[in-house]
């Protein structure tokens, strides 16, 4: 059997070490006893002080009488028991005798020595080996010229080293100081005129500083508390700094501003900090720190903070998404600067904010951007894998998906093998809806692509922009003109955002006269042949009646489409609103497609032509209509009148494309929207019970997993129960707010209605 090893001392060992300790303690006086003794003795000393007027006398006396006195005092010391032995045990320190310690003190040793106080044995003291003189306890205090007794608390005697030393200097002298002297720290010899040696030391700067520190400690400002308060103030300072830095970063980020310029010292981040430092002491102090010191302003730290903030924001969004019963995904790919495809991921869902009693207080339709995924494989399967990995990583349940929104790209929306079909494998009811605003953009692009005159028109707008934009001189002539007011800066036509066409058109329309004037001027003064040619070319374009009529036509068209597009992009928009907006658009487009509207367009154009000094004759009258395909209208060939030609081949053609494309592209949206139409407050109130039955039946069939057949009964009950309230509201969102927030106590009665609304 192996011997069991103890990791704690046995009883015998404990007793042995206790005995040992007691022996040592017996030899060593309890430090506090000296303070006690001095107190009692001082009374006596005061009485006797008349006997000793001069300090020099005293000292000689001390040296002589040292032998008797020390023997008197010594027994008293031995009586004192060590009672706070636990402290001693902790660090194995039993006395503060300098001789028991090495040159470097641990923090724990220092603490205990402070607690123990100066080590002042009362003798008898052995004679110094060199000078053959003994130390005396009388050195511990002295009488000044006036006979006042002054104690030297710093003066100690090491029984181990047999040398006097300075308690204060040992513990607190600044060792880094150039004039640091280790003599009194390690102990000095008692030589002749030792009194003078003591007086010299008392006067030294090192000793006085050490005494001051010791005094601080006695008054409760221990090294620890001093250090601690310094540490605390540092902590507060850096906390304040980080607080400010984070706030600046959040402000910049929420304004979509970059943090840095080309080097780390310029840019918005530093500019704001510098500005704030004029009013804020913390930042002022931070910015005054010398170069190379930590200041938490480096780009690395900025990026770290941004990524930390980003993670927090993303986690909040994810937890919101997870809470939502249903969600819609909106995905799109874009190429970044390095030509890597980035899949942007947006979730649309309803977030219900609750108050402290878990009662819903606000309902919000949220569209949250979760981030970009870099995709190397741009096939539908590749996109799907990338997207599924993301949802897996964040723990988002895709079976809750009830809708998908993409652009028209085949990879995304294709019915066969497109991403939408692949996602539907996971969420069968995730119906694909073409992004409405995007679809509208495409509708306009279709029109521009299929009608040659229109595409030329936008090319020409672009030409005007390029002509002026490519030359600083021309741009300056345009914007510095003193006589005319330069209203809107010329804008570039951007193919993916049709609203840019509107901006470009407006800019040319408002600045038309100024542009013409500048062009004529240039044509006269320019000494470059190319420039003059280009000038003439643009003048010809702008002065044509065709151009002018198209300007008028598209101005009125954009006046209709622009607000609708803006409304479609609004975050509070829903399927119902989109449908209403689009049907409005269709109506207005249809209204334009007749002779009366065309005539009024021509009239308007003629007014403008008068103002601009343009002849009102269509230019393309000499166009040869040669090749026609068999499916095109045969009458086209007979149109020789340029006005009729414009009406049929440009005006009607454009409107027809707009109308048919709007209908086609928004079909899925309208289908889905009509599915939920019954939840529309107005529709619900106006529907008969039978209509409600049919509509809710459709919903519960399609979304059999989410909505039960009880929906019909609940809708009917809701209609009767809250009729007056429903009359006041207009959208499905308001209906659910009504149920969940305003009439929360009723909510549990209409679970299916609530589900359907979500
Ligand atoms: Zn000292």
Could you explain the architecture of this structure?
The chain is α/β, with parallel strands linked by helices and about 750 residues long. The chain folds into 5 domains: about 10-220, no CATH class; about 225-305, no CATH class; about 325-435, Nucleotidyltransferase, domain 5 (2-Layer Sandwich); about 440-665, no CATH class; about 675-755, no CATH class. About 60% of the residues lie in helices and about 10% in strands. A hairpin with a 4-residue loop joins strand 3 (about 155-160) and strand 4 (about 165). The radius of gyration is 47 Å and the shape is elongated. Residues about 30-90 and about 620-635 have low confidence and may be disordered. Zinc ion (ZN) binds next to helix 6 and helix 9.
Q: In this structure, how is the largest beta sheet organized?
A: 5 strands, mixed
- Proportion of residues in helical segments: 55-70%
Individual helix count: 34
Low-confidence stretches: 28-91, 621-637
> Could you say which structural class the secondary elements and strand pairing correspond to?
alpha/beta
- Computed CA radius of gyration, to the nearest angstrom: 47 Å
Question: What small ligands are held by the chains?
Answer: zinc ion
Q: Structurally, how many domains make up the residues?
A: 5
Shape: elongated
* Mean pLDDT over the full residue set: 72
Total strands: the figure is 9
Beta-sheet strand percentage?
5-15%
What's the quick description here?
Residues 1-23, 45-75 are annotated as: Disordered. A hairpin with a 5-residue loop joins strand 5 and strand 6. The chain has 34 helices and nine strands.
